[in-house]
Amino acid sequence: MIDSHCHLADEKFAGDLDAVVARAKGAGIEGALVILEAGNPQEAAQATRVEGLWDSVRFAIGVHPHQAHAFGDDPARAGAIVAEQWQSTPGARAVGEIGLDYHYDFSPHDVQQAVFRAQIQVARELKRPLVIHTREADADTVDILTAEGGGEVSGVFHCFTGTPELARAGLDLGFYISLAGIVTFPKATDLRETVRLVPIERLLTETDSPFLAPVPHRGKRNEPALVSHVVAALAELYGMDAAELSAKTTANFHSLFRP
């Protein structure tokens, strides 16, 4: 199994990181993609700790739309910071998480869009995939990916909770769809129906930990070991054995986030 999106560099894991990694390994989690906030020295330092404990982890680096406002005077600087940190992070494999979030509006929409575009350009230059966050911004997200990606950039829509239309648009752009613990929630019926549209060859599993712990751990801190519950839920949806689904999503991860 692979946790294709987690925040192990978050301060919520600082106190027991060793135990969290040990539980992940004990649960059969082969590796993880750890998301780093570009320009955050605390997260960069903890990323070094994570790598020392779990040498198969890889990293994504990006400016989240919630932090885009910090670059309102110079959106290109966001891309420059990502590119600079990439050079000092040998385990970096993706640019992200980046995108648009119109739900909380922590950053003006035009600033979010400019920062998003700048980072897509970095991914194009690096020839690496994107990790996309989109919330209540489907049309703008797809439009910007289409315009700026130029058919050259793929990636993943992480923690997908969107509509069938968004899933189809993402797949048409060559992106993967990643599911987190929400797919295990009893009321997530619409999401489970949408997931059925996703070919197994484009499916990934994640925790988005420390957030969104799956049933039966809902409400507690999430961690990579719990991705097994996401795998089990998806295996049921696809009518597959959990081990078979895990093998396929693990292969998908390695195809997208190549060594």
Notes on the protein architecture:
The protein has about 260 residues and is an alpha/beta fold. The protein has a single domain (about 1-255), classed as TIM Barrel. About 40% of the residues lie in helices and about 15% in strands. The chain has helices at about 15-25, 40-55, 75-85, 110-125, 140-150, 165-170, 190-195, 225-240, 240-255, and strands spanning about 1-5, 30-35, 60, 90-100, 130-135, 155, 175-180, 205. An eight-stranded parallel beta sheet has the order 1-2-3-4-5-6-7-8. Strand 1, helix 1 (about 15-25) and strand 2 (about 30-35) form a beta-alpha-beta unit.
CATH class: Alpha Beta
Name the helicity range. 40-55%
How many helical elements? 9
Mean pLDDT, rounded to whole units?
97
Distance between the amino and carboxyl termini: 17 Å
Structural class: alpha/beta
Q: CATH topology, which one?
A: TIM Barrel
CATH architecture, by name, is Alpha-Beta Barrel
* Low-confidence sequence ranges: none
The total tally of domains equals 1
Gyration radius, rounded: 17 Å
Question: How many E-type strands?
Answer: 8
**What's the overall geometry?**
globular
CATH superfamily: Metal-dependent hydrolases
User: Strand sequence of the main sheet, in spatial order?
Assistant: 1-2-3-4-5-6-7-8
| Biggest sheet descriptor | 8 strands, parallel
